[in-house]
Design goal:
About 15% of the residues lie in helices and about 35% in strands. It is an alpha+beta fold and about 550 residues long.
Length: about 550
């Protein structure tokens, strides 16, 4: 630097170099004419417009100024790009022989594009408060001054122990006026609330809760430090459904890959670094209420953490574990069409229970369907109703892991990622139910809307809500011949296709014969052979309802 004074430099290379040694209030106003003929007023054109003003006190034949010139130009270009309309640089000459013409020539020779002012443009008058010691000793050129937007507060003589360090400190001061907010969002750009941010530095650590964004640029202990940032978010697995398990299974079977990075993270519910059947098993336990949460919580972030320095931060994307169908993935998955306005009925035949009676109840659709899965939860008063067994014999892959039966609740989650064709009237599920005090089934059993949304997943990509509906019991049956010798026929008109459970009970109520038969819409005839049945009087039940008496004779 071209020194006028021999006063030693203080606080070289540390953040305190940014603080003024002397403060005499806001910068005095000035008016200058630049080398290209533009009139500029400090407050009217800059400070009152909320612009940061960076002044370089220089002269055209100053060797250190020439050394700093390319670095200063790079900083100017970068600052304008980072903060358009919010920053302005001014070069003010301290030399009485530096005219605006000479300043213009200097700028051209050094490739400088910021405004410059010579003596005849008012540079020395504008610099006078800084040259006469009002803000501290003037130590020669180049001297850099930063004036704050709005207030005009002065930071005088920013300098380091090398040109590059001086420019770095100058940039740090400029950036301090523009807090760096980093985002906390989901994969689709929506802000995430209640995210805990932990910051771990060598001699400093802290944690705080942020909503959508956060900023570390004003945390003093982090300005000259390296540190690690890690986000954390709690919450339930509300986005998880059986359809997510279907998509995870398709990925494992290589039927349809999950290619979006956020989907890969979401599917790894066990946080093992890979997607396996174990993730599906864990997910189904959460859906059924066997587990309260995933082993590693409900949220993960991309990246998981970040190592940064000097007041910087990191953008984080939060992913809700299990919810691989949270939104569109341009790389692979096509989001199923939302047909939630078109509910699908899961039917059962109404049954009027007698106190203490046990009956088998079939649940069925009245239309053919190709399904990839379904989920639902039944709720009931355990003092009035008990479910003894749950069967899904025609559902491929349905096993005891597909449901969870607890007091007053039955939760089901079935998936078949390759799809299964189901015929109308086929018993998807059969429940053996005991009613302690009697009553209509439609009043004793209902879908639960809490925690597990009833819905069915069609292979063509539809997600449809399920609703539980009762059909009238088929009350008119004819038996012939009666008395029966060898066999008899049960005849009835059926409103909807369904399976029918035929049972014969003796006069003591003991079950003698049982058979499930398909029913078509319209007239049905079902034969029952009596060859193995002893002669006597028997009671016929169809789907648990009394259907008549039949005498077996030989």
């Amino acid at each position: 630097m071209c020194k006028i004074s021999t006063i030693p430099l203080l606080f070289l290379g540390v953040l305190t170099a940014l603080n003024p040694l002397f403060s005499q209030g806001p910068a005095p106003d000035f008016t200058v004419t630049t080398s290209d003929g533009q009139v500029r007023m400090l407050y009217q054109d800059y400070i009152n417009q909320q612009k940061v003003v960076v002044i370089e006190a220089f002269f055209t034949t100053c060797p250190p100024c020439a050394t700093h010139a390319p670095l200063f130009q790079n900083l100017y270009t970068a600052s304008l790009a980072a903060h358009p309309g919010k920053v302005e640089f001014l070069m003010l000459s301290t030399l009485i022989t530096d005219t605006n013409v000479k300043v213009a020539q200097y700028k051209t020779s050094k490739g400088l594009t910021m405004p410059g002012v010579g003596k005849d443009g008012g540079s020395i008058t504008a610099l006078q408060p800084y040259l006469n010691g009002l803000y501290g000793p003037f130590q020669g050129t180049p001297t850099f001054i930063v004036i704050a937007p709005g207030t005009g507060a002065v930071t005088f003589d920013i300098r380091g122990n090398s040109p590059s360090q001086t420019i770095a400190l100058l940039q740090q001061k400029i950036e301090a006026f523009f807090p760096k907010e980093c985002s906390l969002e989901n994969p689709f750009g929506a802000s995430l609330e209640d995210v805990q941010i932990s910051v771990d530095a060598l001699a400093f650590d802290t944690a705080f809760v942020s909503h959508g964004a956060y900023d570390l640029s004003q945390v003093g202990p982090l300005q000259n430090a390296a540190y690690k940032i890690k986000p954390f978010k709690t919450g339930s697995s509300t986005g998880l459904t059986t359809y997510d398990l279907v998509l995870m299974s398709k990925h494992i079977l290589a039927l349809e890959p999950l290619n979006c990075p956020w989907q890969i993270v979401a599917a790894d519910v066990n946080c093992t670094g890979s997607i396996t059947t174990f993730d599906i098993v864990t997910g189904r336990k959460v859906i059924l209420g066997i587990l309260d949460s995933f082993p590693c919580g409900s949220w993960r972030f991309m990246p998981d953490s970040a190592a940064v320095t000097t007041g910087n931060c990191q953008n984080f994307v939060g992913v809700q574990l299990g919810d691989v169908n949270a939104g569109p993935c341009n790389d692979s998955l096509t989001t199923p069409s939302d047909s939630r306005s078109l509910p699908q009925d899961l039917f059962f035949r109404e049954h009027d229970f007698q106190a203490g009676e046990t009956a088998r109840i079939a649940l069925f659709f009245t239309e053919n369907a190709e399904l990839e899965g379904l989920q639902c939860a039944f709720e009931f008063d355990p003092d009035l109703l008990k479910i003894n067994t749950v069967q899904g014999e025609i559902l491929e892959g349905f096993d005891p892991e597909s449901y969870h039966l607890s007091e007053g609740r039955l939760a089901l989650s079935w998936l078949q990622p390759q799809g299964q064709q189901l015929l109308a009237g086929s018993a998807l599920l059969t429940l053996e139910i005991n009613a302690a005090q009697g009553g209509k089934l439609s009043e004793l059993l209902r879908f639960s809307q809490a925690g597990l949304t009833p819905e069915v997943y069609h292979s063509e990509g539809q997600i449809r809500p399920l609703q539980l509906s009762a059909l009238p019991a088929v009350s008119t049956y004819s038996i012939s011949p009666n008395p029966a010798k060898g066999l008899f026929t049960v005849q009835s008109n059926v409103e909807y296709p369904a399976d029918f459970l035929l049972q014969l009970l003796d006069v003591q109520g003991k079950l003698i014969f049982e058979k499930t038969v398909p029913g078509i819409q319209g007239l049905n005839r079902w034969e029952i052979e009596t060859g193995a049945i002893s002669a006597g009087l028997y009671f016929l039940k169809v789907n648990g309802e009394a259907a008549g008496k039949v005498a077996v004779a030989y």
